[in-house]
Amino acid sequence: MRKLLYLTFSMALIAALTTYAMWAADRPVGHYLSDLRIDLAVDQGTPADHGNLLGIQPELFPTDYQSSERLHRKLAAYLQKAQEQGLLNEKTIVVLPEHIGTWLMVSGEKDELYQANTLKDAMNWLAVSNPLKFARALIAAKGENRVDDAHLRMKAKGMAKDYQALFGGLAKEFRVTLVAGSIVLPEPSVIDGTLKIGRGALFNSSVVFDRDGLPIGQPQRQMHPIFDQSDVIAANGEHDLNVVDTPAGRLGVLIGSDSWYPDNYRKLDSQGAQLIAVPAYVAGRGAWDKPWRGYKGLTTPSSISLKAGELSEGQAWQRLTLTAQPPSSQAIAGMSVFLRGQFWDKGSAGQSFLSSNGQHFADGNAHGARLLNLWL
Q1: Residues 198, 188: contact at Cβ < 8 Å?
Q2: What are the angstrom distances between the C-alpha of 344 and each of 65, 122, 129, 237?
C-alpha cells in the first residue's frame, strides 16, 4: 500500500512539474494595435548646416515590449514621421528617455505578465515564468533589495543584446547619431564594438550609437541614482563623465538626476562638451506639478539654494538642469527627454524641454508622444 501511494504521489508530482515546465516555456504572441502617432511639439531655431538635437518623448506601455520587433515598429514610426518633416540629416542627434531600454526585461513573456494589474504582480509573473533564471539571478544579486536586483539581472545578457540590436539598428536605419536613453545592466561595457555585461552591481547606463549603428565610447553610467533606486542601482563611483565626438559637435550625457549637479557641467566643460543630452524619467501620474521632493536622500550641492517644496517638480527640473546656461554650462545647447506611458499601476510624468542661449523651451501638453527639435 505504501509503495502504491509513493508511486501515485511520484507520478502526480512528475505530471505537475511537466505541466509547469510546458506552461513556463510557452510564449504566445497575440495581435496588438499600437498608437504610432507623434506630434511635433517644439521646433526651435532655423535649419542650417550645423545639425540638430531631436528629442523623442515616446508614450509606451508593457505590451510595446512584448517583443523587440514591436518596440522597433513604434520607435521607427516616430523616426519616420520626423524624417517626413525634414528633421533628420547626417548631423542629427536623436535623444531618447531614461529607462527606455530597462523595460526590455519583460520582452518575450507570457500574456499574464502584460495583463497584470500591478507592477508587483507583473514581476511575480516574470519570476514564476523563468524559475531557473530567477534563481540564478537571486544567488548573484547585490545590494539591499535582492529580489528587485534579481528581476533586473535575470535576463541581462539578452537585454544587452536586444538593446544594441534595437537602438544601434535604428541609428543605422535612419543614419543618425542616437542617444539610446538608458538601460539597467550589471557592469556594462563595450568590448570590440559589442555591449557586454559583467557580474557586479547594476548600473543605469546610456550608450550613444553612431550613424553606422556602432557604440561610441563606453556606456555612461549614472553617477547619482535617486534614493528610490539606490537599494538596487549602484552609483557610478570610479567612472567619470564621457564626452564623445559626433558630426554635430562634442556630446555629453547626464542621466536623470545627474543633471542636477553643477559640478557635472564643469566636468563636461573641461572636456569641451558643446551639446548635452539628458535622458530622464519622473514616476507617478501628476508628479510633474507636485512639490519637488529635493535631492531625495542624496547630498545637496553646496551651490544649490533651492529647497524641497519651494517649486514644483517640473519647475525644479528646469531650474536645476543647467544646459546652455552660461556661465554654469558652456554647452551651446541641451535637451532633457522624459519617458511617458503607463507601466501597470505606475504612471509617469515629465515634460521634455530643450535649452539654448539660457532659455528653456517646453511643450505644455502632457499627453501623447511628442517630438522636440532644436536646430543648432
Answers
A1: yes
A2: 13, 8, 18, 33
CA dist 132 and 214 (Å) reads: 33
List Cα–Cα distances, 111 to 26, 35, 114, 132, 364, in angstroms. Answer: 10, 20, 5, 20, 35
Q: 3-class SS at 195? A: strand
For residue 272, give the DSSP letter: T
Alpha carbons 332 and 274: distance in angstroms, whole number: 5
Please compute the mean of the pLDDT values over residues 39-67 and round it to a whole number: 95
Ordered by start, the domain boundaries in the chain are 29-375
Q: 338: helix, coil or strand?
A: strand
Q: Are the C-beta atoms of residues 222 and 260 closer than 8 Å to each other?
A: no
Whether the predicted pLDDT of 170 surpasses 70: yes
Over the stretch 349-376, which tens digit does the pLDDT of each residue have?
A: 999 999 988 788 887 776 789 999 999 9
- Residues 29 and 65: their CA atoms lie apart, in Å, by 11
Q: Which CATH class is domain 29-375?
A: alpha beta
**Is residue 37 within 8 Å of 370, Cβ to Cβ?**
no
Distances (CA, A) of 178 to 16, 106, 375: 48, 23, 16
In angstroms, rounded to a whole number, what is the distance separating the alpha carbons of residues 371 and 376? 16
C-alpha to C-alpha distance for 98 and 236, rounded to whole angstroms = 16
Q: Indicate the helix (H) or strand (E) that contains 211.
A: none
CB-CB neighbours of 11 under 10 Å: 10
Give every strand in the sheet of 220-221, ordered side by side: 183-186, 202-206, 220-221
Averaged pLDDT, 18-34: 52
pLDDT score at 34: 75
The pLDDT, as a whole number, for residue 16 is 42
